[in-house]
Amino acid sequence: MIRTRNRAPTRSARTSFRARLVKAARTEPGRIRRVLVLALPTVWGAVAISYKLACPLAQQTGLGARIVSSVVFFAVGTGLILHVRQGLLRELREIRAVAGAAQNVLIRPLPPRLDGLALAAGQLSADRGASVGGDLYDVVATDHGVRVVMGDVRGHGLAALATVGAVLGSFREAAHDEPELGRVLRRLERAHARHLRQRSRDEHPATLGAEPDHPLAEEFVTVLLLEIRPDGAVHALNCGHPWPYLLRPGAERCVEPLTGGDPMPPLGPFPLPAELVPVRCGRVLPGEGLLLHTDGIEDARDAHGRFFPLQSTLTDVVRRRTVVPQAVLHAVYGRLLRHIGGLPSDDAAVLVLRNDRRRVPVQSGEPVVRTAHKVL
Questions:
Q1: Is residue 179 part of a domain?
Q2: Rounded to whole angstroms, how far apart are CA atoms 294 and 281?
Q3: Could you give the CA distance from residue 13 to residue 21 in angstroms, rounded to a whole number?
Q4: Distance in angstroms (rounded) separating the CA atoms of residues 59 and 162
Q5: Least confident of 130-139, 270-279, 280-289, 357-366
Q6: Which residues are CB-contacts of 123 (< 8 A; sequence separation ≥ 6)?
Q7: Do 147 and 22 belong to one domain?
Q8: Is 319 helix (H, G, I), strand (E, B) or coil?
Q9: pLDDT: is 236 or 157 the higher one?
Q10: What are phi and psi of 128, to 5 degrees?
Q11: How far apart are CA 236 and CA 182, in angstroms?
C-alpha cells in the first residue's frame, strides 16, 4: 500500500496565491462600480419604458396626462444627466490625483528646513490645470555643501516635462556623486544631450536607430547651479539663467542682485567650456536669504506692457521685516497675479531660502517642524 502525503505549498506558490487575493480585492470595487454605472441608467430607462407601455395615464391624450408624462420623462432625463455628471466628476478627481502624484515625483515638494536652511518654493504653470511646467528646481544636502539647481526649459507647460525630468534626474544623482560643482554641470549637459538624441531618434525613425546629424538644436535649458558652503559662501555656475537676489533685512540696500559676471550659454546649442570654475558670488549670513527665480517672473507684463517689478516688490517685503521664505513667496505670487490680471503666459518658479545655521528663531507665520525631542 502506497501512502501519499500532501506537500505544503512552496513559498512561491503562497506568494502567488496572496498576490491573486490582493489583486481580486483591488479589482472587486472596480467591478461593482462598473456594474452600477451600467445598472442605474438601465433602471431609469426601464422606468420610462414601463410608464409609457403599462401606465394607463400615459395612453391618454388629455392636457393633464401630457403634463404628467412630460414630468416623468423630465425626471428620468434629469436622473440620467446627474448620474453621468457624477461619473465624470469621479473620473476627473481620480485623474487629478494621479497627475498630482506624478507631478510631485517630478518636482518634489521641498522640506521647510534642510541642513540649516529654511526653504520655500512654488511654481505657476502656463498650462491650465497643471502644477508643473518647463521650470525646474531642487535643493539637495550633500557632503560637499547644500547644492541648488534652478532651470528653465525652452517652451512651457506640459510639453517641457520630459526635459525637466532628464535634467532633474541627473542633478539628483550628480549632486551627491561629484565633489566639484563643474562636474555636476557637465553631467547635466550630458543628460540633456542624451535626451535630445533620444527624442530625435523617436521623432525621426528613418535614421534606423543611428545617431542623428542634428538633434533638435533649437531645444535648450537655462541652468543656475549654486553651492552653499557651511560658512554661507555661495559658489555658482550660470548657464543663461537670471542671477538670484540677496535678501538682507535691516541693511540700507536690503535687496540686491547676487551676480558673478556674464553667464555661459544655455545647455544645448553650444558645448560648455573645457574648464568649469565656479564663481564665488558672495556670502549669505545667518538671517539673510536668497531668492532664485525664472524669467517668467520678471518678464510678466500687465495690460499696458509694463514688466513685473520684482526687485521693488522684494524691497517692500524685506525692508522692515525678517526673511520669512513662505511670506516672501506668497507676496511675490500675490503681486504677480495682480500685476498681470490673470494666469501667466509663461511658467514662473520661485525658490526662497534663509540661512538659519546660527539658530535664527522661528519667525512669525513660519511652519514649526516638530520632532520627538526638539523644535527645529
A1: no
A2: 18
A3: 12
A4: 63
A5: 357-366
A6: 107, 131, 132, 133, 135, 137, 347, 348, 349, 350
A7: no
A8: coil
A9: 236
A10: -65, 130
A11: 9
* 263 and 305 part of one domain: yes
Residue type, 11: R
Joined together, the cell numbers standing for residue 35 give: 456594474
| pTM as predicted | 0.69
Residues shown for the chain: 376
- The verdict on 96 and 235 lying in the same domain is no
Can you list the positions of beta strands (E) in 36-116? 113-114
Strand partners, 99: none
- The pLDDT score that the predictor gives to residue 366 is 58
- Residue 258 domain boundaries: 111-160+220-355
Grid cell, residue 317, equals 517685503
For the cut 50, the answer to whether the pLDDT of residue 21 exceeds it is no
pLDDT tens profile 109-138:
899 999 999 999 998 876 665 556 678 999
Which residues, in sequence order, are bridge partners of residue 118?
Answer: 113, 354
What's the burial of 256, exposed, middle or buried (CB within 10 Å: 0-12/13-18/19+)?
Answer: middle
- Within this chain, do residues 71 and 151 fall inside the same structural domain, yes or no? no
Please say whether the dihedral angle defined by the alpha carbons of residues 247, 251, 253 and 259, taken in this order, is positive or negative: negative
For residues 355 and 116, the answer to whether their CB atoms sit within 8 Å is yes
Distance of CA 94 to the CA centre of its chain: 18
Could you give the CA distance from residue 375 to residue 109 in angstroms, rounded to a whole number?
21
Q: How far apart are CA 37 and CA 17, in angstroms?
A: 30
**Residues 127 and 252 occupy one common structural domain:** yes
Work out the percent of the chain whose per-residue pLDDT is above 70.
64
Mean pLDDT of the chain: 78
Please give the distance of CA 98 from its chain centroid, rounded to a whole number.
Answer: 13
| CA dist list (Å): 327 to 105, 304, 375 | 25, 28, 20
Of 164-168, 175-179, 190-194, 371-375, least confident by mean pLDDT is 371-375
Domain count, the chain: 2
User: Are residue 140 and residue 26 in the same domain, yes or no?
Assistant: no
Dist CA 229 CA 323 (whole Å): 20
Residue 6 lies in a domain: no
Same-domain check for residues 51 and 125: no
> Residue 93 is placed in which grid cell?
478627481
H and E: helices and strands count for the chain: 8, 11
Q: Is residue 212 part of a domain?
A: no
Q: Specify the CATH number for the domain of residue 139.
A: 3.60.40.10
* Residue in this structure with the C-alpha cell 495682480, named with its chain if needed: 338
